[in-house]
Amino acid sequence: MTTHTLATPGARLVYDVHGPLPPAGGAPPLLMIGQPMDASGFRALAAHFTDRTVVTYDPRGIGRSTRTDGRTDHAPGTQAADVHALIDALDAGPVEMFASSGGAVTALALVAAHPDDVTALVAHEPPLVPVLPDAAAAERARASVRDVYEERGWGAGMAAFIAMTSWPGEYTDDYFARPAPDPAALVLPADDDGSREDPLLSDRSWAVSDHRPDAAALAAARTRIVIAVGEETGDTFTGRTAQATAALLGHRPAVFPSHHGGFVDGEFGYAGQPEAFARRLREVLAEAETGAGESR
């Protein structure tokens, strides 16, 4: 692995290249991106692609990547411009991409703006509020997480976030009438450390979940797009957003092993199935490149 730094307008991006550039064997680079996850979250998955050149990066303002634009929000258009610059810097032609969570939102914005950058995209559980039938209620639920975080700190905010993202189905009156979750019951700290900068719990990532995919631009792109969903995610928030995003693009989502973090191992506290996930990712990328499966 080699580590590099790339200057983009308003940021200095740090990225890692696992393998040779240009790639050996004719396969394009496989770029793995997340949001707010940084490159470290793809360690377990990348370890199952030692036959490929894999590229991971830290989004601006996260992990090792710094920003000089004076902003704290995470706008998908800005993130997409960063990834476009990163792909140009690789100088290895268009890439294949696995993008998860907010990274999947960035990837959809990238393909809409720069359709020649990516040959095949697997967008795993993009958390897109506007595609939901109960979008207004989902916005209210998201705001309540922010409010708890602002009032009581990280542990209480994370408990509220877990309650929101694990709620099955639409956000009904029953959801809003439930008691606030107890962080101690989830083995989370009850004390407030005073910090209020977490991108998941503050409103800094609302631009991500508020993003409206450009369905027309995505349909016109030559990129083979596959929306992915974990088999354990069910009809919770990101399961529903994945289903709705796939429907917006005119196909069904591809089912992957495990849950929203199904490609990570136990180091983050909620282990997925990275080996099985990697096998499925290989299958779906191969199907996307040949036009088979659930891609378009």
How does this structure look, described?
This protein is α/β, with parallel strands linked by helices. It has helices spanning 43-46, 76-90, 102-113, 135-152, 154-165, 173-177, 206-209, 215-220, 237-248, 274-290; strands spanning 2-8, 11-18, 30-33, 54-57, 66-67, 95-100, 118-124, 224-230, 254-256. Strands 1, 2, 3, 4, 5, 6, 7, 8 and 9 form a 9-stranded mixed β-sheet that branches. The protein starts with a strand and ends in a 6-residue tail after the last helix.
Task: Compose a concise summary of this entry.
By secondary structure, the protein is of the alpha/beta class. The protein is built from ten helices and nine strands.
Q: Mind sketching the topology for me?
A:
Layout: E1 2-8, E2 11-18, E3 30-33, H1 43-46, E4 54-57, E5 66-67, H2 76-90, E6 95-100, H3 102-113, E7 118-124, H4 135-152, H5 154-165, H6 173-177, H7 206-209, H8 215-220, E8 224-230, H9 237-248, E9 254-256, H10 274-290
